[in-house]
Specification:
By secondary structure, the protein is of the alpha/beta class. It has 5 helices and 3 strands, in the order E-H-E-H-H-E-H-H. Helix 1 links the parallel strand 1 and strand 2. The chain is flat and about 40 Å long.
Length: 100
């Protein structure tokens, strides 16, 4: 059974923008209504500009979520067209290999 879900922004970062916060709130509440604990990764809500400029932060969030044994499921917020920029940061220290 899924008890804890981590929401992550691996691409665009729209999740952190003010114009979608009502949707974020509704989505989190729906999951909580099912008895699921919902957490967002450290940089998921930093917004589009920050995440566009810091692919290493997005990679760090993914590695953290994969290595956190209390997290049962990882849900990507939206998109994915910019996720390729994480690759250099995911493979530089073999952390991804160890996590998966």
């Amino acid at each position: 059974m899924v008890k804890k879900i981590a929401i992550i922004s691996l691409s665009r970062g729209i999740l952190g923008e003010s114009f979608v916060q009502h949707e974020v709130k509704i989505g989190k509440q729906r999951l909580k209504d099912y008895g699921v604990e919902v957490v967002t990764t450290g940089h998921a809500l930093k917004g589009m500009d920050y995440l566009a400029e810091h692919p290493e932060s997005r990679a760090q969030d993914l590695l953290h979520a994969l290595n956190d044994t209390s997290i049962d499921m990882i849900v990507c917020a939206i998109g994915g067209d910019d996720t390729y920029r994480l690759l250099p940061y995911l493979f530089e220290h073999e952390q991804l290999k160890k996590a998966v």
